[in-house]
Design brief:
The structure is a homodimer. By secondary structure, chain A is mainly alpha-helical. Chain A has helices at 3-30, 36-47, 53-59, 64-76, 98-119, 124-145, and strands spanning 51-52, 80-84, 92-96. The two termini of chain A are 30 Å apart. At the A-B interface, α1, α2, α5 and α6 of A face α1, α2, α5 and α6 of B. Chain B binds a DNA duplex through residues 26, 35-38, 52-54, 62-70, 73, 88-92.
Chain lengths: 146, 146
DNA sequence: AGATATCGTTAGCTGTGCTAACGATATCTC
DNA sequence: GAGATATCGTTAGCACAGCTAACGATATCT
């Protein structure tokens, strides 16, 4: 196998694995009534503290109009709150409600449970390798953004 | 960090990485005018030979009505053809056109190019680790489906 | 003060995913 | 064989995500 074919196969496998992984995880996430983009945005808000809508859009690699609707959906569910900025009234700060934190935690628990079931069959060393691979994957994705 | 928190973090990172990876790759795939689901379905048809709409829907983990529209889109672009079955006229067989094969190949090349750029900055050993991680990821996803 | 830039929203488009319901065809049962 | 039942793909109708273009409100620069 040449180096080129190797990279091609890696790209293909990565693409396919990502698609199918998300489809599987979405089934669990559905139990919380939240779509993947909403869950992802909520996660950023919960762990990344309050931030403006534009910052959130950039963090999620999405255009502002898309984020407006995601936030509107989250707000309607009572998971997030919009707050005006006293110093710059064009800005809208988004922060998580306590319900939002609870829902996110519950969703994580569900996902972890499913993933844990799949992972429990792995050898300890394989698990470490997977963890390492995920870390590298994150680096790759980050470098693609730059 | 406890073992539980560790698994939780891994699940979260995987989830997030998969979402962001797909968003990045979709930008390249857009150049071919094909969305991720269409590209994925086309890939199955090209490499998996002719198959019925229902089989394709199952392979892509999607309900038949969804696949009907994906195939309709692909057919309108001339990438795929519907063929009736002489023995069972309820069935519709889907097969790739030569244009479909070309477009898929071109899309792969684009994706690989982008991924290769991100990966070329990695050490040779890191690349091997990533490859190993992707293999494990595929195993995990497969075991989740079962 | 007036021009310019920035932020978030609205409007309108395409596409993906679902369920429910339907027509056409096969198959099973009597 | 005829009628009930099952299967396959499609259509209709809903919710959501993604985009661009255009706008109003507010800040900032000249």
């Amino acid at each position: 196998m040449t180096k080129g074919e190797d990279a091609e196969a890696l790209a293909d496998h990565l693409h396919s694995a990502a698609i199918h992984l998300l489809r599987q995880l979405r089934k669990e996430d559905d139990a919380s009534g939240l779509s993947a983009p909403r869950l992802s945005a909520l996660s950023v808000v919960v762990f990344g503290g309050p931030l403006t809508l534009g910052e959130l859009a950039r963090a999620e690699q999405v255009k502002p109009p898309t984020m407006t609707r995601i936030v509107t959906g989250l707000e309607r569910e009572g998971l997030v709150k919009r707050k005006g900025d006293p110093h710059d009234r064009r800005l809208t700060h988004i922060e998580a409600t306590s319900k939002g934190q609870k829902v996110l935690t519950a969703g994580r628990a569900r996902r972890v449970k499913k993933l844990a079931a799949a992972v429990s069959r792995m050898e300890k060393e394989e698990l470490a390798e997977l963890r390492r691979g995920v870390q590298l994957l994150r680096d790759v994705v980050t470098s693609m953004r730059g």
